[in-house]
Every structure is written in C-alpha cells, then in structure tokens.
C-alpha cells in the first residue's frame, strides 16, 4: 500500500517514488544496483566504455521477451531509448537522459550510447526506472500511459483508477520467477489509514509508514504481533528553496540568518521521531564526498542569526510567504515557529499538488507577483551527485526549466558542477564536490533540512521486502513464509 | 414540582435546556475572557522534543505533533471561535435583516425577485456554497467567515420579511392603530418584543452552525491557517496521528461538540421561554 496513486504506467513519463515502486514490477533497466549498492547486469549482460568516457557499449541479454510476446532484443532496446531521447515526445522523466545522452545506435548485437560530455554517473543513470525498456509496439500505439508492457517478473493486469493496480506473475520471465501469483497495489493519502491497513491485514506491505506509528510496532501489543516495521537509511533530502529575486532574500546574510535559526536536530526529533538525520549540505549521505553536519551546525544559533539580520538592517525582522504541499506542511509549521524567534514572520500557503507545481516552478515575474519567497519540497536521486546538484543549483536549471526554484545563478558553481560530473577519478571528484558544498554553504540558495529514513511496515508472513534509499519499495524478491498471504503488498 | 391533571410530575424541558445551555455558554464565555489571562502562555510555542505526549498533570490534554500544549491551544482557540461567531453573525444579520425588511415593504415584483434569489441560495447545501466561495476568495479565516456569513444571509432575509409581513397584517396591530397608540410606542412596546424573540433564537441556533462550519472549513485547510489554534485545524492536524495518539483529535472534537450543544440548548431554551404559546 502506497501513499499516492501511480501517475502513469509509462516509466519515462513520471518522477514519483510511489509510481516507481509499482512500475519496477513491470519494467527492467539495462543495469541495476544490488543490495550492496554495486551495479549489476539486468537487461544488459556486460558493457564497456571508450577511453574518453563518451561512448558506452552494452550487450543485450538474449531470450528476453516483453509481456506482449515481442522479443526484447537490441532493436527493441534501441527503439526504447530513441523514444526517450526524442524531443518531439513530451516525457516528464526524460530530462536527465536528454541532457547527458547525445545519441543511441545499434552496432551488431550491441547498443552504443554517445554522450554529450563525460558523465561519471552514467551507469547509475541507467538504473533509474525512467530509462526502463518498454515494448516498441505499446510505445508506437501510445497505450503505455495506461497499460504497462515491460519485461519484468509481473505482468500488468488492470488499473482501476482510484482503487488499485492488479498484476499477475510473468510465466515467461527470464530470471527467477516471482513468488506470488500476483500483486495488488492500493493507496491512501492518510497516514493513519496506512497504519490501520497494516494492522487489519488489508495490506501486507505499507510504504512509507509515518514515523508516528513506528514505535507501535516495536512495543508489546497487537501491532507488534501482526507486523514489523523496518527503517533503512534514506536519500530523500527535504529542503527549502529561497527566492533570490525577492528582497530581502537576495542578501546572502539574510539567507545565512534563516539557516542559523533552524534547529535541524529538533526537526528530526519532532517530525521524524528520530528516523532520519539533519542535513547541512547539498548532498545526501549516500554520496561519497557528502559533508556531514559540523559541530553545532545542526542546532540553532539564534544570537548569530539575529546579529546577521542586524547587519543586514533587518533587526525588526520581515515577512515572507512559503508555498507547500499538504504532506510537507508540518515542516513549514515547525520552521515558522523557529523563524518567529528571530522576528521572521512566515505565512504558509498550503496548496494542492497541481497548484503547488504551478507556484513552485513559476518564473521570476510570477513568483514576484505572488510574493513567493520560500518553496518547501524534497528531492531524491540516490548515488547520483550530479542529479542532486545540477537540477537544483545550476543556472541553466532555473524554473520553469528544472528545479532551481529560487533562480540561483553562479557561473563558478556551474563550472564546478560540470567538472564534478566529468571527473572519473574519485579523489579529484570528491575534492570538487567538497568545493561545491562549501560554496553553497556560503551562498545558501537552498536550506537543506533533513534526510528522512525509509520506513516501511511488513505483515508477519511476508519476507524479502526491501526499500531503496529513495523510498521505492522492492517487492520482487518478496515471498510468503509459513502460512503467509498469497497476495502482497 | 409541577404535576399534570393526573398528578404525574411534569419535566419542564424548556427550563432544563435553557439552564444547561446557559451554563455551558457562560462557562465558555468566562473561559474565553479569563483563560488566557490565567494561563499566560503562547499557544504557538513548539517543543519538538516532546511531541504527542499523552494527557498528564503538566499537559491536561497532552501535546500535539509539534509539542504544543493542547489545553492552552483549546483555551486560546475559544476566543477564536467566539470571534468567528460574532463576525459571521454580524455580517449575516447585518445584510440579511435590512434586505428582508426592504423586501417586505417593496413592490411585489421586487419582493418576488429577492425571495427567488434567497430560495436559490437556500437550495445550495451551506458548506458546499462556503467551499465554492472560499475556493474563489482563497483560503484564510476571514474569507471562511465571509463564506459562512454568505450562506447564512438567506435565513435572515426570510426571517425578517416573514416577521414584518406577519406583524403588519396582525389584528392587534390594527387594534393598536385604531386605539390611537403612537407609532414609536407600537414599535418599542409591541413590534420589538415580537421581533427580538425570533431573532435571538435564530442567532443562538446559527452560532452552533457557524462553529461547525468554521471548524469544517479549517479541517479542510480552507479556514484558519497555521499556527492559529482553531479547533478544526487542530483536529485536522491530529488525524495524522490517529491510531498512535487519540488526544490531538479527541479534545478539540469534544470542545466543538460541547460548544455546539451548549449553543443549541440555549437557543431552544430561549425559544421555549419567550414563545407566548408556552407561557402558562
């Protein structure tokens, strides 16, 4: 059971964690991470790259078939990637691939990618569900958005809008066959409903489980007898973008003061019930080279914050407006109380998902008209340093193009991001990443808040469920233990 | 004790409801006036290290998801609730009564037109109309109160019109005029007592509806915005912890229920007491 309905059955046309959880049972990518975070083959059997890192060659696994019976050969894989890169087709999840990959061609029994520039995270990029291989027939017919056709261990059966997505086992799967006859995906936006569904057995797996309920499953009682809760380190960064075009947020001293007034440890304690860690840097802990919080950095320093505001001529504080979606509203309310202590009055505008997207990704003039100063949201790109930096901080990513929601523009930072992305040598890359993080700590275009753990609950009788660092639930290896239920999650 | 003609004791419902409603409303009024002075606390003060603490001596109603004391928020929220009632009813009655009186004295075609508009507004379920208005004006407590007032206006239009028409054609009115009683004396001694009874009853009963409607809109995120301690908002916040902590939902819910029951009892009681047909 998930917290939201899938947004599409087309892997290239979505960017939502819940949707990825559902789609990962239907689709597969060329390569994939194993449980230790290492890249392993999936639809590709092996690969190699040119010396300059611009050309990548993959051999495709033989005897793999799509759910519609077509062979998943090099022709089909090439067609799938050509569709992903085709600028004429609007696909919400194709942005990164289109920035990195110049072209794709087939060469004998293999597929060859030519990149626009050397990209150290190319293999991790190919693990993303957005790059999953789709059936050429379904893509041509335009039915993918509603009817998934991939090569995965489960076959799409039906999507009852508002109710569920039904699947059944793929009898012709090339790998180890799925344990369950089928999976049924259901969803609810109410955290308490997810908790109740887990306790009553309406769901065998729920993700994400609200931290409020985690302790119920750790104490003696009904909940602990019927299900268990698991926490795995997450890579979802919660952050607040500051509008650099709006006074007084255009002043770096004011932005630093806002950061200093935040008690990130308290945010983790209160909002996550301890299931997470404070974030003081632009990169999440899964990235090699991510800077941890310094001494006292995760706690508020109100006197330093007030002093900075005073030097900026704002000792009486000021008012700003934050836009936020309902799930992130508690974060805004906690920040509102923290900033109140330094005289900053935060007005919270809670918005529906669609309205929020319009506000958050609005261009500078619209944000100025609506007086939007702060945008609260989250971002997840596990193991991909470039994907955690470029969309949020690069000047070319300024909204509405991408997720640089506060319009931060610094040419030296752009150069550093490019240098880190092209750097194959680990030590050099980490040095560049450190330089980037220090620059961002001085400029504070964004306030990193915390990284939340992935919490999920599993009914007794189900084994083998795991979660990715971005909160994606992995049920492909799930199996019933003893007299467990037949259908999960 | 009163007994009927067979000697069986008679329970005077009007007396009980009046005193029950009166006591509850007086208590709430007293709490709203004195509570914040006695508590002298900040209802928005958070303590993220002590969230969702169960009710205890230190926190009689427990703490919410931000570690705020729920009792303190309820007491401060009471002022907000009374403010909601006052603003909504002043706006609704302030528009509705003059329009109703005007309609009663207006030419027939205009009277019909006003009554038709009023009927159309009546046909909409109140909360749906309020949702429509708030979604147009934007979320916020003041907008929510305007929306609530808007769906209450037709009630006052109809009430004022009916009262004036009834009085105008009453035989006692003719008798007073024939006896040569002055217009001012008729208005003060005879018309006003007839009008004020119905008006008072309607205002009290509407107060309960206002509390419910304001709480509903705030529950949906369209009314009071954080960190205001509005009871509906408090319930909405609390529902995310239902199953692990009942108190963030229960106590604001009880407060709303107590206020609405108190106001309805008072309204019923006033009606029973002032209605001439109930007088012995």
From TrEMBL, chain A:
<comment type="similarity">
    <text>Belongs to the bacterial solute-binding protein 5 family.</text>
</comment>
<dbReference type="InterPro" id="IPR000914">
    <property type="entry name" value="SBP_5_dom"/>
</dbReference>
<dbReference type="InterPro" id="IPR030678">
    <property type="entry name" value="Peptide/Ni-bd"/>
</dbReference>
<dbReference type="Pfam" id="PF00496">
    <property type="entry name" value="SBP_bac_5"/>
</dbReference>
<dbReference type="GO" id="GO:0016740">
    <property type="term" value="F:transferase activity"/>
</dbReference>
<dbReference type="InterPro" id="IPR039424">
    <property type="entry name" value="SBP_5"/>
</dbReference>
<keyword id="KW-0808">Transferase</keyword>
<protein>
    <submittedName>
        <fullName>Glycosyl transferase</fullName>
    </submittedName>
</protein>
<feature type="domain" description="Solute-binding protein family 5">
    <location>
        <begin position="39"/>
        <end position="387"/>
    </location>
</feature>
